[in-house]
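Researcher: Good morning. I'm working through a list of sequences from a screen, and I'd like to move beyond sequence-only analysis. For each chain I'm collecting a predicted structure so we can compare shapes side by side. This is the next one on the list. No need for commentary yet; just the structure.
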Amino acid sequence: MKKILCPTDFSDISLNAIAYGAKLAQVSNADLVLFHEHSLWSASPEEIILGKSSLTESIANELESQCIQISKAFHISCYADVIASGRSLVGLIEEFSSEFDMIVMGIDQDYDLFSYVFGSRAFQVSKHTELPMILVPDEFTFEKIDRIAFAFDPSEKRETPIEQLTMWAERWNSKITLLEGVQTEDPAPISRVSHPGIGSEAIQVQHLSKSKMIDEIDQFMLEHNANVLALFSRQRKFFESMFHKSVIREMTRKATYPLFIFHR
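Model: Good morning. Structure tokens for this chain:
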């Protein structure tokens, strides 16, 4: 991993995610890029005509100052990037995603009506990027990723995308517990089995009741002190996504621990 992107709006939530991203960059020997999208809708007509906003300059200076502090504190390379645009954050990240290996972003769990229906900003980014993401809840501080819990629903009729996850687990030297949703109110206890896609290596598998999966995932995370909850994101058609109860969306509302979202 060479480059980590950290979008920021200078809120406490995004500043906390930057601290997490900086520590992750340090242990991964990666560079950190702080990114802020400054909406042109907030610029004056004169600034738009000139193509240069004094507010944008001020933001760029503030972000650059943060980078200098981060570089000194974490001994990493940190860069600032401010783009004045009328486009959405999702669209801009999608455009520049090929330059990065991962996104670290804060989770805003204070919802307005739009966010409640369609999901948070971080959730919207996770739906439209192919980059892996770590979504960090407010006030969570970085801890070494030793234990990964991976929640997966076998009824999706897709192969468990374990190979993609094991690549990251090997980088972080982590152990994986697979949380599988099953149609029963009395799921089996933890077992240790070999799983297709891992070769001869065995991982823990815990069955969860599918009807209570969100709550049982949360309970497992808190009781077993897993460092991140991994979730696989797949593209859905618009009307399908409207009526699908997305585990990722629900967990961004509930989680007090980081979510690791991967796509392939």
